[in-house]
Amino acid sequence: MPKIASATAVLCALTALSAAAGLSRAASGTEWQYCLAPSHADNKVYISQPFASDDLGFGDGQFRKALNRGGVSVDDIQCPRAETADAIAAMRRYAITFNRDSGNAVIFIRLNPVE
Questions:
Q1: Which residues pair with 81 in a beta bridge?
Q2: CA pair distance 84, 106, nearest whole angstrom
Q3: pLDDT, position 48
Q4: How far apart are CA 78 and CA 81, in angstroms?
Q5: Are strands 81-82 and 105-109 parallel, antiparallel or unpaired?
Q6: How confident is the model at residue 61 (pLDDT cuts 50, 70, 90)?
Q7: What is the residue-wise DSSP string for the chain?
Q8: Residue 67 — φ and ψ, nearest 5°?
Q9: Residue 24 phi/psi, 5° resolution?
């Protein structure tokens, strides 16, 4: 499967998983997320740890900055969201497994809270 089609399949799978699970913003306003960024040319996917979006105060912009500081070039950034920590952890595990099964190296990027 071409790498672009593979990335599209990941996005579609994550979207379907979110819709099927009925994951929406919690009444409390806390959302959980992680960020994912493929580099198709290098057969790599960069992925952050899960975080409560209101705790860290960032998303794709801060993830892009972290990648840029490391000299990493990516094709796009996705930051799926979920209502609970368990839901986002399941989505992240699926993305890791899917990418490894597709022949991509999974690189973990540690994000730090914005100060």
A1: 33
A2: 23
A3: 94
A4: 10
A5: unpaired
A6: confident
A7: --HHHHHHHHHHHHHHHHHHHT----TTS--EE--EEEEGGGTEEEEEPPEEHHHH--SHHHHHHHHHHTT---S--B--EESSHHHHHHHHHHHHHHHHHTT-EEEEE------
A8: -65, -45
A9: -135, 175
Distance CA 20, CA 14 (A): 10
Residue 109 tokens read as 């990027």
Q: Which two tokens stand for residue 97?
A: 């497994």
* Burial letters 49-66, b for 16+ CB under 10 A, else e: ebbebeebebbbebbbeb
Whole-prediction pTM? 0.72
Strands 105-109 and 44-48: parallel
User: Nearest CA to 100 among 8, 34, 2, 10?
Assistant: 10
